[in-house]
C-alpha cells in the first residue's frame, strides 16, 4: 500500500465517529474518489469480465481500492472483523472463510457495480471505473479467498506502530476474548495490567470491546426523516388548539392558533413553509424572559447549553433532534406532560436520568445548584413547577 493512499485511510475511532462515518460512507460511496473528478464508466457485465489470472499491476490497483474503500466494513484482512461490522445486520461478507468456488467472480462484479439490496453494500457505479471494479474483485479473490493472505495489518511499523507486541497483555480485551467489565478480582495480575493498558490507551480506537453487561441503550430508535409541518400541533392547517403552557413571545407571529371564538385561521398555500426545516427553526428560538432573577438567568444559560439539543430551545421538544427521538423528549410546555411534576421529581429526573429514554443522568455534570437553576428557569419559561405537597 502506497504512503499516499495509506495516509488518507480513516482509522477506527470512537462510536460517535463511526456513526458519522458510516452514514457518510453509505451515502457517498465509503469515501472520496481516488481521483479528483471521477467519471462514470461503462458498467461491468459478466460478458465483459475476463476469465484470466490478474497481473501484479492489477492486483496492486485492487489493493489500493480495497484499502481505501472496503476495509472499513470488510477489514484489512477481509475477515469482516471491524468496528463497523458490529453495527451492521446482515454482517459484511467474510472473504477469508468464503471459498472462491462458492462465489463466482461475475457475481462479485455485479455486487461491486450494483450493490446488494437489503445490506450496507452499495453499488460503486460512477465512483469506480470498470477497471477498478475488476481490479478490486480480483484482489479480493486472490488475496483472501485463494491465498488466505493477511493483506495489510494495521498495527505495523509502516503505519506508525513499532513494537506493537509490547502491548500483548491488552490484546485479549481488544479482541473481545475478555470482557472489559470483568470484575478486577476475577482477573489475574497479567490480565489486570492488560485491562489498565486497554482502558488507558487502546480503548480510544477499540471502543467497542466485548462487555458482559451492555447496560441501557442511551440513544433511542430514530424515526424517519421528518416531513415539513411534522409539528402537527402548531403548523398544520387543521383545527387544533395552541399548546398549553407559559406564553412564548415568538409564538403569535410564527404559529397558527385558534382564535378566541374557536375559529381557525386558514393559511393559504403561498403562506406555507417553503423549505423543510422551517417547521423546526421556530422551536430553536428561546423565549425572551423579562427581568429574570439571577437564578433564572443562570438556569437559562445551562438549559440552552445542555438541554435544548433534545428538548428544543423553546421547551417543546419539537426541534429537529427532538422529533427524531422515540420516545420523544418531554414537552416542558405541555400541561398534560407536566401534570404531576414537582420540583423534587424534576430534580431527580435531571440527576438520575430516565431509563428507557434518551434522558441521561446529569448528576456527574451538573451540581445541585445548577439543577436548582434549571428548574427555576423551566418553571418560569415553560410551565409552572410546584414543590411537592407538604415540602
Structure classification: mainly alpha
Count of DSSP E strands? 0
How confident overall, as mean pLDDT? Answer: 75
Order of helices and strands: HHHHHHHHHHHHHHHH
Major sheet attributes: none
Question: What is shown here, in short?
Answer:
By secondary structure, the chain is mainly α. Helices cover 35% and strands 0% of the residues.
Structure description:
With 391 residues, this protein is an all-alpha fold. The chain has 3 domains: 144 residues, Cytochrome c-like domain (Cytochrome Bc1 Complex, Chain D, domain 2, Orthogonal Bundle), CATH 1.10.760.10; 50 residues, no CATH class; 141 residues, Cytochrome Bc1 Complex, Chain D, domain 2 (Orthogonal Bundle), CATH 1.10.760.10. 35% of the residues lie in helices and 0% in strands. The chain is built from 16 helices and no strands. Helix 3 packs across helix 6 and helix 5 packs across helix 6. The longest helix has 17 residues. The termini are far apart.
Structure characteristics:
single chain; about 400 residues; mainly alpha; Cytochrome Bc1 Complex, Chain D, domain 2; 3 domains; 16 helices; elongated; disordered N terminus
SSE map:
Elements: H1 3-6, H2 15-28, H3 56-69, H4 71-74, H5 105-114, H6 130-146, H7 171-174, H8 189-200, H9 232-235, H10 251-254, H11 278-281, H12 294-306, H13 308-311, H14 320-324, H15 343-352, H16 368-381
Helix pairs in contact: 3-6, 5-6, 12-16
Amino acid at each position: 500500500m502506497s504512503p499516499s493512499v495509506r495516509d488518507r485511510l480513516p482509522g477506527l475511532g470512537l462510536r460517535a465517529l463511526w456513526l458519522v462515518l458510516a452514514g457518510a460512507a453509505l451515502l457517498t460511496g465509503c469515501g472520496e474518489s481516488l481521483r479528483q473528478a471521477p467519471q462514470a464508466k461503462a458498467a461491468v457485465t459478466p460478458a465483459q469480465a475476463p476469465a484470466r489470472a490478474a497481473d501484479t499491476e492489477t492486483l496492486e490497483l485492487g489493493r489500493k481500492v480495497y484499502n481505501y474503500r472496503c476495509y472499513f466494513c470488510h477489514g484489512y484482512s477481509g475477515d469482516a472483523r471491524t468496528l463497523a461490522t458490529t453495527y451492521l445486520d446482515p454482517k459484511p461478507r467474510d472473504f477469508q472463510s468464503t471459498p472462491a468456488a462458492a462465489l463466482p467472480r461475475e457475481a462479485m462484479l455485479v455486487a461491486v457495480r450494483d450493490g446488494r439490496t437489503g445490506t450496507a453494500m452499495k453499488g460503486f457505479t460512477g465512483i469506480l471505473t470498470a477497471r477498478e471494479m475488476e481490479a478490486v474483485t480480483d484482489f479480493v479473490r486472490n488475496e483472501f479467498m485463494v491465498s488466505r493472505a493477511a493483506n495489510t495489518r494495521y498495527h505495523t511499523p509502516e503505519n506508525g506502530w513499532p513494537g506493537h507486541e509490547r502491548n500483548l497483555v491488552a490484546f485479549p480485551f481488544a479482541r473481545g476474548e475478555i470482557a472489559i467489565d470483568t470484575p478486577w478480582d476475577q482477573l489475574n495480575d497479567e490480565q489486570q495490567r492488560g485491562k489498565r493498558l486497554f482502558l488507558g490507551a487502546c480503548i480510544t480506537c477499540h471502543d467497542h470491546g466485548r462487555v458482559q453487561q451492555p447496560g441501557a441503550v442511551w440513544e433511542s430508535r430514530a424515526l424517519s426523516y421528518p416531513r415539513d409541518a411534522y409539528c402537527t400541533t402548531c403548523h398544520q392547517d387543521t383545527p387544533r388548539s395552541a399548546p398549553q403552557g407559559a406564553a412564548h413571545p415568538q409564538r403569535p407571529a410564527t404559529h397558527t392558533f385558534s382564535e378566541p371564538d374557536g375559529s381557525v385561521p386558514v393559511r393559504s398555500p403561498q403562506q406555507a413553509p417553503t423549505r423543510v426545516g422551517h417547521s423546526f427553526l421556530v422551536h430553536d428560538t428561546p423565549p425572551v424572559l423579562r427581568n429574570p432573577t439571577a437564578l433564572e438567568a443562570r438556569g437559562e444559560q445551562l438549559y440552552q447549553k445542555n438541554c435544548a439539543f433534545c428538548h428544543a430551545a423553546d421547551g417543546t421538544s419539537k426541534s429537529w433532534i427532538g422529533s427524531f427521538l422515540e420516545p420523544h423528549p418531554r414537552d416542558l410546555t405541555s400541561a398534560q406532560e407536566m401534570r404531576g411534576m414537582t420540583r423534587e421529581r424534576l430534580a431527580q429526573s435531571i440527576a438520575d436520568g430516565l431509563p428507557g429514554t434518551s434522558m441521561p443522568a446529569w448528576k456527574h455534570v451538573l451540581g445541585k445548584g445548577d439543577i436548582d437553576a434549571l428548574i427555576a428557569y423551566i418553571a418560569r419559561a415553560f410551565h409552572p413547577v410546584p414543590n411537592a405537597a407538604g415540602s
